[in-house]
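Exercise: predict the fold of this chain.
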Amino acid sequence: MPGSTNALIIDGYVDEPACLGVAPYISPYVREVAGVLSERGYTPGYVTIDQVRSDPALVAGQGRGDLVVMIAGLTVPGTYIGGKPATLTEIQQLGTLLREPTTAIGGPIAFGYAPGGGRKAIRQAITGFDVTLTGSPAVALDAWLSGGEPAGSTDYSLTDPWCVAGAGIIARHPAFPYVMCELETATGCSRATVGGCSFCTEPFYGLPRYRSIGGIAEEVAALRAAGARHFRLGRQPDLLAYQSSGGEFPVPRPEVLRELFSAIRESAPDLRTLHIDNINPGTIARHEEAAREALAAIVAGHTPGDIAAFGMETADPAVVAANNLKAMPDDVFRAIEVVNDVGGKRTGGIPELLPGLNFIVGLAGETPATFDENEAFLRRVLKAGLLVRRVNIRQVMPFEGTAAYEENTLGLHDARFRAFKEWTRREFDEPMLSRVFPAGTILSDVIVEVAGKPSFGRQMGSYPILVGIPLALPVGSVLDAVVVDQGMRSVTALPCPVEVNTLPVAALRWIPGVGKKRAAAIAARRPFGSLAEFRKVAGETPVDGVMVF
């Protein structure tokens, strides 16, 4: 095998509690594997599972002596716009199709597979592939290519150079240059000492191993040289704990985070996005002053519109206790207050850093009253005037080896779960979006991902807001947009500046205060030469400052 030069990486996408690799995100696993292959004399190619669905011939040409490595697996359920993760059926079909080349598969698929939330994952051999890479896919692949067992744990002395060597693979991503590079800062969980949360697979990786600032900075420099401008510090369970030690809830080290963000900025001075992902609300509640300083360091170094994802899971104290979760409801509420205080200021019209809340349904100890507690918590947030960027509600997807695999309430409260989800979208999300993205908010560099009327796009970033644009726009279009209305999960926006003399009537009606009748009147009296002329027909609007004639 090492004498061969042809290798192909199939990105089936990954989603874990501490790693996202669904397009437009590209996971560290893919880049590390590309580095291993390059180091061993292969010329690695790259295709996504979405590309394979559209054109199976992309993988059918692999012959004897070639090597195919697939990365895949979900350990948390999700809803995706940029891509659809590979299903177990598709993975096995690919294994069967690829008869001549040597094939390997790695990633969280090794932990098991479930088709979605609310179902137990089943651990089984992946038929059709020659080998399953367990642990770190890159370390396992390297060991296997050396004649050893296809297994290996994270070793940054090995993977840091591979990340640099494999950085160029991002240019093969179909979304390039609008690719979000998920950066790893750590694997493992500090709460593994007490078993971790009942449902979480991150403790499978053991206690935390922290990556060096130098290793991260070198990778960012290599990615920048390859054309990357969008980065997220997402591959870790709690960024506040970076390079900290001392038990279940380590004390944050603000000076280390300042150094980290500074090093990334030096390596990619022209970056466009630098966001984060997981923040443990229990860390904030237990070490508030140090956490405040650490959050301030993040705000000083990142780009605005960022999200600190809180694994809240539930507002029911009994469920928190039964599942060894990170924080009690009052702790989470205090963490929301702290993040609002540190990150709530607006830059360019959007908040710097807001919390996001994750709820999980189906945990042990859950009762119908649990959902009442959840709704009461969200009402409390609204009443307090706090900002929350998004609420994610999903059903638990238990994996063998977690406590939730044996102890859960799957299927017991389905009707109440659906009612809670609908209540949240209607009673919480819609008014919250009006607070976070009021009419007149300008969203820069919205990338159209779904064409139609309306077209839908998003910015690059952590959990970017879905933007509906009432125009037919081609996929891949990039534009600035001004918010004109809010829904339950998305906002409606018009291209900015709003060109009132050329905008279609169907789009004109979305200008606040215009509506269908005025839109028709505006169209009949165009062209306008000034704002004053336009106002005679349209009245006052909150987006005057971005209108052109």
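Check your answer against the key: The chain has 17 helices and 25 strands.
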